[in-house]
Amino acid sequence: MHAGIVGQAAALFAVTNIDDIVLLALFFARAAGRRGALRIVLGQYAGFTAILVVAVAAAFGATFLPDDVLPYLGLLPLALGVKAAWGLWRDGDDGEEA
């Protein structure tokens, strides 16, 4: 494996997880002096492990797809977002404030 690829992967991971670092800092600041810090650590590891398992399973599943289909997988999140937005717009605002 090339060092450049590993460096790019590490940089992209760091950049995409800046919000996670901020949230963890806030959670730890709130839990300072309390017993909740261990739960924060365990929750972080459990969540990250779940994301990693899903990503590995998706990558493994993608190996069974034809190469011509792979570029179109990016349309799946877009379609899900459009469907959710359409549902919100259709059921929409009745003009009443909650």
Note the topology.
Layout: H1 3-16, H2 18-30, H3 37-62, H4 75-91
Task: Describe, in short, the structure shown.
This protein is mainly alpha-helical and 98 residues long.
Protein model, in words:
- With 98 residues, this protein is mainly α.
- It has a domain at 3-66.
- It is built from four helices and no strands.
- The protein has helices at residues 3-16, 18-30, 37-62, 75-91.
- The radius of gyration is 20 Å and the shape is extended.
- The mean pLDDT is 87.
- Pfam families: Cad (PF03596).
- Keywords: Membrane, Transmembrane, Transmembrane helix.
User: What quaternary form is this?
Assistant: single chain
Helix content: over 70%
- Report the C-alpha radius of gyration, rounded: 20 Å
* Average residue-wise pLDDT: 87
Tell me the strand percentage band. Answer: under 5%
Q: Rough shape?
A: extended
Number of strands: 0
Note poorly predicted spans: none
Our count of helices gives 4
Write the element-wise H/E pattern from the N-terminal end onward.
HHHH
Class from helix and strand fractions: mainly alpha
How can the largest sheet be summarized? none
- Gap between N and C termini, in Å? 55 Å
Pfam families: Cad (PF03596)
Keywords: Membrane, Transmembrane, Transmembrane helix
Transmembrane segments: 6-29, 41-63
Protein name: Cadmium transporter
List keywords for this structure.
98 residues; mainly alpha; 4 helices; 0% strand; Cd-R_transporter; transmembrane helix; membrane
